[in-house]
Write the structure tokens for this entry.
Amino acid sequence: MLMSKNRLLFPALLTVLVMLLSTVSPVFAANPPNPGDVVINEYVANATTEWVELYNTTGSDLDISGFYIDDIASGGGAPKVIPASTIISAGGYYVMTFSSFLNNGGDDVRFIDPTQTVVHDSTSYTSSTADYSWYRSPDGGSWSPSESSSPTQGSANPGGGPSINPGDVVINEYVANSATEWVELYNTTGSALDISGYYIDDIAGGGGAPQAIPASTTIPAGGFYTLDLSNYL
């Protein structure tokens, strides 16, 4: 008798379960990026806590769940998987931190798809300064020729303002024979300009090493910037 009741109850329970499942809406993942949509934007390779920042160059939120951040192909450390449900908002950032993953003396940094066969973006470096970052200027733009002493983890990189054309910033004054030499630049335009990563140099192909202008250096509209030097000119 008990077995007979169970046989009657099972189809009824199965029917209820099917009805409940049919009321649940399917969940679709957000759009995954195409190559070039999400790029490596900044990274610190020489620090107690290393990190890589990704930047969403598009106007849409993108799902990067299951993608990887890796170093040199077919070597180095194991690729680092990006957790499930990781979304980069339009024009936003994602930062992954790790320890002892990137080599201080040079390495590759790669952003690869979940199959680990498609490289969405990559860059490389041959040296790294402790706690400095390599970065694009502006976000998603060209890589800066020099490192930044003021990393901008999870926020805009230097160089996000108007582009600088030849003649916008000029050498305005300099002292070449002094205990403290200096060169003054003048912004001829009506907009503030970011000159981070530019250089002041002497003779081409010789003389001293070019002197880098520090990160986050902005000349106001019609304003000045002075770089102090010693035994350079």
In short: DSSP finds one helix and 18 strands in the chain.
